[in-house]
Amino acid sequence: MVFNSLDFAYFLPIVFVLYWSSSKLGVYWQNVVLLVASYVFYGWWDWRFVGLLWCSTAVDYWASQRMQQSKHPGGRKKLLWLSLFVNLGVLSFFKYYNFFADSFSDAFVFFGQEVGLRHLDIILPVGVSFYTFQSMGYTIDVYKKKILPATSFVGFAVYVGFFAQLVAGPIEKASNLLPQLLKKGTLKYKDLEQGAHLLLWGLFKKVVIADRLALVVDEIFNNAGEYYGLTFAMGAIFFAVQIYCDFSGYSDMAIGTARLFGIQLSKNFALPYFSSSLTVFWRRWHISLFQWFKDYVYIPLGGSQVGLAKQLWYVLLVFLLSGLWHGAQWTFVIWGAYHGWLYGLEKISQVLFKNKRWMLPFQHVLVLLALLLGWVIFRSNSWEDLVYILDALTSFEHYSWVQVSPYFVPLVKNSVFGIDVFLSVFLMVLLFSLEYIFTYQLDFESLPFKIRLPFYVFGVWMIYVVGVFEMKEFIYFQF
Amino acid sequence: MPVKLFRLFLILLLCVLTLGWTQWWVRRTMLSVKEDTMGKINAVAARELDYNMTVWGASTALVNVNPAILKDSTGYPTMNMGINGTNIDQYHGLLRHYIGYTEQSQWLLLVLDVEGGLLDRDYYYHPHYWIHHLDNPAIYNSFYDIDPAIQRLQYVPFYALTLYDQHAFQYIKRALSNTKEVPTEHLGYKPNGTGYYDLESNNKVSPFTVDLGTRCFEKIISISEEAHAKGIEVAVVVTPCFSAGRDKILNYEAFTEKVEEFKQNNIYVLDFSDHGMSQNPKYFVDNTHLNAEGANVFTRILASRINQMTQ
């Protein structure tokens, strides 16, 4: 089930009524409602993988309880390894087996050897990267004695499988979400109002902006051989906005949905494209994932307590892992390496040069250009496409109007894509203006009702009329 | 609390009013279109179109059959009702509606191509052509057969608005800019330019099988029964398929055998899929779509076969 589906439009009010009706019975029954709802939500996509989710939950719950009882550090460590083995095993098998098997086979073929690693027809369970990371984070925290293990299995199962953030985050730390699930929720008007705002805004970003931009982006990147540099430049900008609206739209809807149940999830995006450095960008983009990597990979390795050379190496490692986390594909690994390398370069430049105020606009432009190039790597369908697109983007003749116009003009003027291109540009301007104003200058919720009213009506109207309803899944579901 | 409830009511009321007005306006705009494919569909839905001979099918009817030649040769005023991307699975409701009211009709030519003529669809193609006619039970049923989700129209408020795809914007744009609409031209026929078959591309295509959907097959039979009841003759016309492309179709024999079965229901079967002209790449744009020259050649051959049958 996806948030932008009619099924969810019926599912959510039913769960909402059941959840708040059960509040008289206590927190246990509230959690039972959420757990059943979460498994229905997940099983809607493929019921067989509910078992996998449950196994991951059961193993981590059992391991954390035993950890608490165990007096010996060695025993605690073994339990942690068991949890990591199960979670990473599930992730490796379902997500990476074919990638590594194919890569090994290709490597051996390159050296003239044949190896018999079979390519398996494996379905990637939706959201597996999200819930395994969340669950692993919990056992690591229990192991490090940062938190106490959950006292209720049902509460813990909701923590791992809460439908609002199960399939695409935010990846919640147990210290934030678990305590909220283990105490009785109370219905507050403010929560409902803010939850509804976030749901509406997230849906707007997904169906009106992301999915409309996708019409142009898919055409360009899925038929890469037919286009030239200028078109790819436009495609890169559109994809940058598409993936932002797709993922941050999902996060907004997830946070909004959770608010309807009185649960506060972590913020996952904070105007990342307004960053003046890549360091700031990665603090504002998919915040929960990069916080996870920071807490469970970067800091345990030594973090900023080690020398600059080691720091840079660890940063590169984190970005490589992050690239691989996004998908079992070499383009994602390259994308991770690219950002790791850029991040390191920026760190060195910060040591060498002091930031001047007049440099700020140039920094913004440089960061945006670097990000756009990164998104081209991310979006390319294959290595061959990537090489072609990079060649097109960097060849001067691909920008000569005489050369480009036979390809670019039809895309823009064509009766279908022409509308999508111009509409997309309008929507992008609208999006960033609204997000900037309502983040830095005005608090939307404190505006008088008569000013907010047209926004609500216009938002709903745009979703119906301009929204693309082809039941597109969110991009991050595949990760 | 009453203030908050009143505000919620006001939001809902304004949303309903704006969406209701939009739905009404878009529907009115779409119904007013007289040009191109949407114009043809509108004309039939409004019972404004009635010809002795009508040619039904997808793009291979639209671009392969020139109604002017058919009229000159057979004497029957003819209209090409080809609808791009839409085989009988989607257009049968409109055809059923046409059979219901026609008084002039003597011949229905159901044009199929080998590759997609009997393909059971699992999604609506270009729904914006049809949404404003879904109150017509025959058209609604044809959509329901493809995807029962269409019944959401009945219980989801303003669901119709969500069905318009990006292609609908061009009509709205024209309505907003008051572009003068061109009446239906060329009797519904849309010649496919002067392109030639790309033999090199065909060489790269792997052998494949074509879908022989039972739903399409049954629909042709049920349509023909309704037509026969009104004294209208029905012919299934299989358009030429370029020989090199045809050789890649693994179940071509099964397709032709299936088409032959229509004869058991008193349907004429005119199979040109391996006609001599299908050896000549200069008539084809791809395996099943002819260029304008090919369409004229093919229509003359088709007309002479019809003349033979009617004499």
Q: Work out the strand percent of chain B.
A: 5-15%
Helix tally of chain A equals: 18
By helix and strand content of chain B, what is the structural category?
alpha/beta
Structural class of chain A: mainly alpha
**Total beta-strand segments of chain A:** 0
Count of distinct structural domains of chain A: 2
CATH-level-2 architecture of chain B: 3-Layer(aba) Sandwich
Report the CATH topology name of chain B: Rossmann fold
Largest sheet of chain A: none
Helix/strand order of chain B: HHEHHEHEHHHHHHEHHEH
Query: Could you state the CATH homologous superfamily of chain B?
Result: SGNH hydrolase
Q: What form of chain B results from the Cα inertia axes? A: globular
- Run of helices and strands of chain A: HHHHHHHHHHHHHHHHHH
Count of strand segments of chain B: 5
Oligomer: heterodimer
**How much helix is in the residues of chain A?**
over 70%
Beta-strand portion of chain A reads under 5%
Give short descriptive properties of this protein.
heterodimer; A: 479 residues; mainly alpha; 73% helix; B: alpha/beta; Rossmann fold; five-stranded parallel beta sheet; 14 helices
